Amino acid sequence: MGLGGIVRGKRTVLRTPTEDDLLAYARWMADMRVRRLARPWHEPAMPATWKERLTEQAKDKNTVLWSIDADGRLVGLAHVVFGWEPHRDGARITQFLIDPDLWRKGHGWDAALALHRFLFDYSDLRRGLITYTADNGGARRIAEKLGYQEYAHKHEVHYRDGAFVDEYELALDREVWSQRFGSEREYEPMGTGDVRS
Questions:
Q1: In sequence order, what DSSP letters do the residues of 23-83 get, joined into one string?
Q2: Is 197 within a domain?
Q3: How far apart are the first and last CA of the chain?
Q4: What pLDDT is recorded for position 194?
Q5: Which of 171, 188, 178 lies closest to 84, judged by CA?
Q6: pLDDT tens digits, residue range 68-106?
Q7: Is residue 191 assigned to a domain?
Q8: Which of 29, 62, 119, 173 supports an S-S bond with 40, CB 3.0-4.6 Å?
Q9: CA distance 163 to 59
Q10: Is residue 186 situated within a structural domain?
Q11: What is the pTM of this model?
Q12: What is the CATH number for 8?
């Protein structure tokens, strides 16, 4: 898969990344507000190194990288790993980042909802997985709203500001997704007699 196609939310669009996005990626990965809450997708580097990373990402068939736009401008990124043993019908969201200068404007929720519509309604996956630190309030709120359930609590995993911080692992099963959002689809499911060319 490598670089994702177009996934539309109501306010945001997940789209194929371009080289023009890489300076923002590098800036976000160096931003201490981001590094405090999540592991960076890649460490900060020179533009040529980011171009190499984008080229390598395009070749990776098990992961997808999207840039997130809102109002015609780049506002974030999403990175998803598809399949893991013993089940190949799930996805782990390894990075979901909104530009810290644009936090609390609703971009995160809209893009997360669009991404999960792609994972469950379009790709028909069985389960989604995420990990976040105990002090990442934005991730927690979005995960709760989507219906994620905690299955692992890792104590004192990260050290910062003179104290250790816990980390949570959560899962969202397709059944829970369907109960919460199955009647709120932005499109009608294809019936058995439908034929589309």
A1: HHHHHHHH-HHHHHHS--SS----HHHHHHHHHHHHH-TTEEEEEEEETTEEEEEEEEEE-
A2: no
A3: 24
A4: 45
A5: 171
A6: 999 999 999 999 999 765 556 899 999 999 999 999 999
A7: no
A8: 29
A9: 40
A10: no
A11: 0.86
A12: 3.40.630.30
